[in-house]
Design a protein that fits this description.
The complex is a heterodimer. By secondary structure, chain A is an alpha/beta fold. Helices cover 39% and strands 22% of the residues of chain A. In chain B, helix 1 crosses helix 6. Chain B is globular and about 65 Å long. The chains are: A alpha/beta, B mainly alpha.
Amino acid sequence: METGQTKHWDIRLVDLTLGYEQKIVLNKINATIPGGKISVILGGSGGGKSTLLRHLVGLRRPISGKILLDKYDLFALPDKDFKALRRRMGMLFQDGALLGSMNLADNIALPLKEHTNLPDKIIREVVLHTLELVNMADFAEYYPNELSGGMRKRAGLARAMVTSPPILLCDEPTSGLDPITAAQMDALLKTLKKQNPQMTIVVVSHDLESLYAIADHAMVLNQGGIAFNGSKEELQQTEDPFLKRFLDRTNIHADDSKLPRFALKPETGEQIKNALDEWLRQS
Amino acid sequence: MLTFFKIIAGIPGFIFDNFLLLIREIGAMAVFTAIGLRRMFSGKQFFKVLHQIYFIGSNSLFLIALIGLFTGMVLGLQGYYALKTVGSEGILGTLVSLSLIRELGPVLCAIMITGRAGSAMTAEIGVMRISEQLDALEVMDINPHSFLVSPRFTACLIVFPLLTAVFDVIGIFGGYFTGVALLDLNGGIYLYRVEASVMFKDVLSGFVKSVIFALLVATVCCYKGFFAHMRTDSVGPEAVSSATTSAVVLSCILILIADYVATTFFI
């Protein structure tokens, strides 16, 4: 297998059906995530974005269909080749997923310590350099529980980047962050892309600001399928009613006659009001 | 009436389903143990094992010494008065040493380590599972078995016999303290009976038992934490607490069952 550091890794989804046990989340989807670009996967909560990402990185097996990385079918490869392919991916988890029992330096050094025989001095140098890239060099000796959510995400990104993988997958890198920190995270991803032009970055997000800030390519998931797959510019010019509502942040279920399914009965509302009034009087 | 018959008719199915679940769980644990043992010899284990020996062994030493001392003292006290009724208090050393080396040492020591370190193992691995840390290890191509399970297996296999030996020695001293210092038994007789009664076979049985218990505790505690996310009775942090409770309870039950089985071989 090629080292993949100097090539674009296209990711192709072929008749892909994903889900958990009996529940299908995405059904027979076909799409290409172009290599060497930043692709943002958007969609509502529970729409299958993170599920798709976990399949892309091989943490779960699809119900049916294929995920092709370049020409390699991820789940048809022998175990050894599967692992070799996965070494070409780095992943930033939603909360960083840093090991709580290690400080940041040890967390980021972990892949290098486990897979190489580099001397500790060299590893330390690489770790500090990688932490510097995410503006966290001063926090090398901190433990994850001593850091804010944004810092944990940046440290998680540093760990994903330390082996210089040609494919970087990010699960909700800006969720739960204040607008300034979220913008810094977006800027960081842009910088990383500039420094590694060959890198394929896939970002799962529900943050439209991130889409406008970093995306070259966008994919929108809706109701178990792909509502859109194309460039950011094409998405912005779309006339599709669902996509327009999605981008305008208007209620995408506004026309849905089925809603609301669970209306309160008048007597239930009265009971709740009385109970809460009683509670407030007590306090 | 119909409901009553429905319940009665459902009992065989319920028993069969649970029997199948039990068989599946035992099979999964056996595979888990085999993987853990095989990975004990994969690279870069030394410092992880050392850390676990410190955590499981060194941190449990004081507790084991304390429990061993009082177990020996109670054995000395009860044994002295029981033997005195038949005029045989001179063999107190035999009673204390054989009880400790053959049975109480390995069993009590294993139960104490389960409570202190086994529960911590389950909780730590369980928390790592529900907070995606194990997934992160897999993505980094670090085998979670090699990284988390095998070092604990190795450490338990080293630490259990050592702590059992400490427990036995301190327990025998506890019996000496009660019998000789408090109840005026002749110290020379006590020690002579210890030396004369304890055979190599007794020490071997205690050692083998402690190794079996080490494997049981390490397997159950790591397994329960590793699969905390697959529990059907709870999710999230509650699943970790349920996994920890069930790991401790199951370990203790298995220790006692395994003790009986091992004793039948050594008796």
